[in-house]
Structure formats: structure tokens, C-alpha cells
Design a protein that fits this description.
single chain; mainly alpha; Dna Ligase, domain 1; Acyl-CoA Binding Protein; 3-stranded antiparallel sheet; 5 strands; 12% strand; globular
Length: 173
């Protein structure tokens, strides 16, 4: 049997449970468990902790086999949610959260709203009926992605946001 690296959880299909914290991390194992017992948990998938080991062993590379498995789970998630990652009318947005076997509040990185871009922003604005909400979601994605992935200091984003607020206040008043 082929090694599994990605585990799906959703109302009708769950791959994992609370006893898999070594593989799924605490958050992933608990999401699978809650989904499995019928609690209202949004569907998703967990990339196993073993991927981190493979990534480190291969000098920061993800093998094609794992990338393809992630894409298969993304397509499965699209099917369950009836949304499309990158879709401009009903965009699927995902959160990427770090995890560990034990809970470490505030210590692990998160990127929210992955999947937003200039095209999907319009779909989210239309779906929510609130362009300001969609723009704020996009701003949060850029801020988190810049901080977590690109390692741009948070203060840089905060300085820009503060300058824009001051500028707008001067225009309004």
C-alpha cells in the first residue's frame, strides 16, 4: 500500500481520529475526530507531520507524489464544498495552520484566506455582499503570507496600514 501523507475530514468522509496526533498534530487529529463524531466542522484536509520530515530530508523540496496527493485532496474539498479554489464566482478559501502533537497557543503560524487574488476577490465580494469585508480578507492574506512565508516583518505591514489610515483621515476631515 502506498504511503499516505494527506488526510481528509468532512461530514461524510474522515481519514483520521484523535489517536493520530503523532501524524496529524493535535489540531488535525481533533478536527478529524470531531468531524467523525458528527460535530459541525468545516471540511478540510491535514498534511501529515511526516511531510515536514520529507521536506527537511530533501533539502526543502516536496516530492511530486506529495504535491499530487495534496491536489487530489483539494479537488475532493472543492467537490464537498461546491466551491472552486481560484474560482472567480464561488471561490474556495483555505487556511494553512501549523500543528504539533501538543497544543502551543500563539506559537504556531497561520495563513488565512489562501486562494484570494484580484480575480477571486470579486467573487467573494459578490457572494458576501460586502466588498469591504472581501478587501479586509485580502489584506489579511497579504499580511499573513508576507509575515509567515516571505518573512517580511509584521511591523512593515502595520506601518503601511497606519500611514494609509492617517492619509484617509486627512482626506475625510
Amino acid at each position: 500500500m502506498k504511503k499516505r501523507y494527506v488526510y481528509f475530514f468532512g461530514k461524510d468522509h474522515v481519514e483520521g481520529d484523535r489517536d493520530m496526533k503523532d501524524i496529524l498534530g493535535g489540531k488535525g487529529a481533533n478536527l478529524a475526530e470531531m468531524s467523525g463524531i458528527g460535530l459541525p466542522v468545516p471540511p478540510g484536509f491535514t498534511i501529515s507531520t511526516e511531510v515536514c520530515n520529507v521536506f527537511a530530508k530533501l533539502s526543502d523540496e516536496i516530492p511530486l507524489e506529495i504535491e499530487e496527493e495534496i491536489l487530489r485532496k483539494l479537488v475532493q474539498l472543492e467537490g464537498v464544498t461546491k466551491q472552486k479554489f481560484g474560482g472567480d464566482e464561488n471561490p474556495l478559501l483555505v487556511s494553512v495552520r501549523s500543528g504539533a502533537k501538543i497544543s502551543m497557543p500563539g506559537m504556531m503560524d497561520t495563513v488565512l484566506n489562501l486562494g484570494l487574488n484580484d480575480k477571486t476577490l470579486e467573487g467573494l465580494a459578490g457572494k458576501s455582499g460586502a466588498r469591504r469585508f472581501a478587501l479586509d480578507c485580502y489584506r489579511r492574506l497579504i499580511h499573513m503570507f508576507g509575515d509567515v512565508v516571505l518573512e517580511i516583518p509584521k511591523r512593515k505591514f502595520e506601518e503601511i496600514l497606519k500611514a494609509k489610515r492617517i492619509y484617509l483621515l486627512r482626506i475625510i476631515f
